[in-house]
Specification:
17 strands, globular, UDP-N-acetylmuramoyl-L-alanine:D-glutamate ligase, single chain, alpha/beta, Protein-Tyrosine Phosphatase, Chain A
């Protein structure tokens, strides 16, 4: 048994060596041995390629504004590992991580020597979250973010009150498939018999797959730009303002403090989900709670201003769709500024298209790498570049310190790419520079 938090965390992280092992049998086995804690929690399940974390945050904030205790299970983390399991935005304590790891380790040891094989890091953390929300810190609701895909994701042992699929993009193609239809089929795997699904998917072929799966499960489906409509969108100094209409009613002049037109879509999905929960009698809330929840929602590392003067922005744009959203904002909101982009990414991403799109909206780019098993080197990224204004830096910490301290007026610094890198960069900037 572990004696300290550090021992427990080291054991959890060591299970990364098992990689990604799609399938639910290990989770089902552990849950049965634990007394099925996942069945004791009222949950909302959120999947998709982009926008999952923001949608989780919007919905959590709305439910909190209505007076409920809300657990969230998210990945990856931005500030500390413990934030992956949180209640009302407060991350699980080190002592509870220790308790949870000691509950799971004997089961993991047994699985290690079974035909099923040992649980992965993500499976261990998922199992820990179920125990935490059901027993250690019981919550009114828990909002679960899918880790990868959906159909075989370890969170998919849930039977939620409502499912949300934000969108479908070409990410993790080596695991999920290399077409929109194949990936949509995996994402749609979270749809449960008779449980409503709300989706922001815009790609027609992907949407057709999700609609087909919903029909097969007799699940009502509410689609963005059909049953859910956004209008009167305008940018504000620190966010977005818009009106949303759903089958459950219209809310005008909603405001969010998260930047980007894509956040109006994420917020609208959260609004529709909360309205469904209200209509179904699961939640007691009204328009004021929805408005307050949206206004107060905050998710670090998503077009986040970590400094106003000089202007430094962090954005975890880690795939094609994320890069496109970032590029759109840089072209509109910051059209009068000179843009310097610092970029780090994992090797298994569509790096050519991501880098070339960023070069279209930047005045110069700097490529860096970071300590992560699948991280692309700065040299590999620079080789893809087509701009004479691009360069690489081998020591990103020293570079960022000098760049931020020496920024000239009229420039903005945008640090983007892998969420794992954004987590490290955010910590370094806030602790050592600003």
């Amino acid at each position: 048994m572990f004696q300290t938090y550090d021992e427990a965390l080291a054991w959890i992280h060591a299970r990364l060596r098992l990689g990604i092992k799609p399938g639910l049998k290990r989770m089902e086995w552990m849950m049965e041995r634990l007394g099925n804690p996942e069945r004791k929690i009222k949950t909302i399940h959120i999947g998709g390629t982009n926008g999952k974390g923001s949608t989780v945050t919007f919905l959590r904030s709305i439910l909190e504004a209505a007076g409920y205790s809300v657990g969230t299970f998210t990945s990856p983390y931005i500030e500390s590992f413990n934030e992956r399991i949180s209640v009302n935005g407060t991350q699980v304590k080190d002592d509870d991580i220790l308790k949870l790891a000691n509950r799971i380790k004997p089961l993991a040891d047994e699985l290690d020597h079974s035909e099923l094989g040992g649980p992965t890091e993500f499976e261990v953390i998922t199992a820990m979250s179920f125990i935490y929300f059901a027993e250690i810190s019981p919550v009114d609701f828990a909002v679960y973010e899918v880790g990868l895909g959906g159909r075989f994701d370890s969170t998919n042992i849930l039977t939620p009150l409502v499912s949300v699929i934000t969108n479908v993009g070409l990410d993790h193609i080596a695991i999920l498939g290399d077409t929109y239809e194949e990936i949509a089929f995996e994402k749609a795997g979270i749809i449960k018999e008779g449980i409503p699904v709300i989706t922001g998917t815009q790609h027609s072929e992907a949407l057709a797959v999700i609609a087909e799966q919903a029909a097969g499960k007799h699940s009502p489906i509410y689609k963005l730009e059909e049953e859910i409509r956004i209008s009167a969108h305008e940018k504000t100094s620190k966010g977005e303002k818009f009106t949303v209409s759903t089958p459950f009613g219209e809310l005008a002049n909603l405001e969010v403090s998260m930047i980007g037109v894509h956040q109006t879509a994420n917020a609208s999905l959260a609004v529709a989900a909360s309205q469904y929960l209200i209509e179904s009698g699961w939640v007691s809330a009204g328009e004021s709670e929805i408005r307050k929840g949206l206004e107060e929602a905050f998710w670090p590392g998503r077009l986040e201003f970590v400094s106003e003067n000089p202007t430094v922005i962090l954005d975890g744009a880690h795939n094609t769709e994320g890069i496109e959203s970032l590029a759109a904002e840089l072209s509109t909101r910051f059209s009068g500024k000179k843009v310097h982009i610092v970029f780090a990414a994992l090797k298994d991403k569509p790096l050519d298209s991501m880098i070339h799109r960023l070069e279209e909206v930047s005045d110069k780019m700097t490529f860096v790498s970071f300590d992560f098993p699948r991280a692309a080197s700065a040299s590999e990224l620079l080789e893809i570049s087509q701009s004479p204004e691009s360069r690489k830096e081998d020591d990103w910490k020293t570079f960022l310190t000098g760049e931020i301290n020496g920024m000239q007026e009229g420039w903005i610094l945008v640090i983007t790419g892998s969420l794992y890198f954004i987590s490290e960069a955010r910590h370094h900037i806030l602790e050592n520079i600003l």
